[in-house]
Amino acid sequence: MELEKIAEIEYATWVGRKELFRLGTALLFIIGIMLFTISREGAVSHLLVIAAMIGGYMALNIGANDVANNVGPAVGSRALTMTGAIFLAMIFEAAGALIAGGEVVGTIKKGIINPELIANADVFVWLMMAALLAGALWLNIATAVGAPVSTTHSIVGGVLGAGIAAGGWEIANWAKMGQIAASWVISPVLGGIIAAAFLYIIKRTITYRKDKLHHAKRVVPILIGVMAWAFSAYLMLKGVKKLWKFDVPTALLVGLLVALIVAFVSRKIIIRVAENLENSKQSINRLFTLPLIFAAALLSFAHGANDVANAVGPLAAINEALSHHEVAKKAAIPLWVMMVGALGIAIGLALYGPKLIKTVGSEITELNQTRAFCVALSAAITVIIATQLGLPVSSTHIAVGAVFGVGFLREYLKASYARMVEEIKLHHKDAEQGEIEAFLNKFEAASLREKCEMLQQLKKHKASVELTKKERKSLKRKYTHELVKRSALMKIAAAWVITVPVSGFMAAILYFTIRGMML
User: Fold this and answer.
1) Is 59 a member of any domain?
2) Does 394 score more than 50 pLDDT?
3) Which of 147, 155, 238, 249 could crosslink 142 through cysteines, CB 3.0-4.6 Å?
4) Distance from first CA to last CA of the chain, Å, rounded?
């Protein structure tokens, strides 16, 4: 009896021990940053030590929240295991940060405040510390409630709030903030439309056909080529932009050359693999597994290169201000600062990333490899379009919007098909059950064009059954299958809307707190 009670107690405390382990590991990382910063040669400011610890905390939260968008669809579709996805993302995030993270960063993110209105270097340091800590705290809260939010918007809100507290309302660039607010709508809508469009193309050209594998041999290599085109251009515009500068036309031209090579090679591979597969949707999904893994790796690399500045940019700015005692528009990123960002993102992903990976991968809508491929492809294409149009977009909003777009398209298609089946039954209401089943089986096996012809034939003889407008609305309500979790939609949308205001409000409070302590 006593052994049973001990087992129950151990089981009950297992969750607590796991949480304690994660918290302890994160604290050890931050303490390690403190000790390393103190041990550096030369005089070390206590403000730099504190800022480095806050930067590490921010990096942990970026890894916990933002990286999920890159690998979540691959995990949700079972193309990658959770462990495999975490290791892949850790490696490519760190590689992106260290290889292509750049040597210089803008001290004022997105130009949202005017640095000339900041009184002196001390005020600037307090401002950046408050902004960094506020952004990290908001990301921590969002991760705790399971809401994927934009880390860029978190730090933008922090800089805006602390900047207003330090220099008044006139310090803010409200035109730029208007563009950022517009991106709350532009990013997810554009991502959702593009992802849904690719999924619909795949359904029309492959999965709605009788001989799926035959059409897959022709269409899938083209889609993989499009993916290679998009990701090549994406990496040139975002992944390595701090090493080499590419304009959009050049990036697209180089990407097209890569796409042609990839499409040629993948066609031979797919033809060989397809010979051993059955003519089913599951087999089509298998053809997208490897491209999806590559997409997750490339998204992680580009994210590490592009978004590590959210963690180390303010820290580099503080280091520059303390070293030269002036406010600079650009700041050099020392190697140790970049390491703080790269390691922090990797450790944060390993410790707290699974929660948001599950949210993006499986808790919004059900994903398979084909749908997840469309989500990943949408993320790259949307960023390219936004870059060309000069629109500020969030990779988080794009990826999550793409997941919602795929889910809502599935809802529409399933509801449309269910209404067609119900109308067929109504047109055959006086027929025997066997005749109805035979017609439905023929309808199920028919190609998309044959289905349309069968429905047209029914409509020509629809005098036997006339559906009123009220009856059609009733059918629509009856067959509206909710394949997208509405509670997740409301929670994520609310988190997006309040990200900038909440992080800005916290940053203002933190600025006044730091200022009061330092004066």
Assistant:
1) yes
2) yes
3) 147
4) 63
